[in-house]
Amino acid sequence: MNQDDHLHSLGAMVACLHQHNLRYLSRELEKYGIGGGQFRFLLALYHLEGIRPDDLSRLLMVNRATTTRALQRLEDAGYVLRTPDPLDRRALKVNLTEKGHRMHQFIQQLSKQRSESMLAGFSPEEKAQLRKLMEKAISNCREECK
Asked: Are 67 and 57 in contact (CB under 8 A)?
């Protein structure tokens, strides 16, 4: 595989899209005190209110130290609240605050706008086909990782 082949491999193209998207979201969210990797935690917490940090680490496939740092920054900015688990006082549960819920809505809007700009010029059929193919590729990757 020569250098040009690598630049056009599926993995490289997906990585390129991811990097551009991450850079865009990071730039927009920096204004609100949210760093590049922290918005993933905020998005996950929207769907998993009351999750324990260890479970969140496993879900997002990051180490505990990364989770602790991200949650501390989000808590300092008022987006999340960590409270003792009533069933196990040694453990913590993490929830979004009202400010965190508002930020989730904002991130969803940003993501939608970004997706629309990425798919500008695509026909509805092309968008549907791309989604179907991406879902299939993701499914294949998940099967390989079992």
From this structure: yes
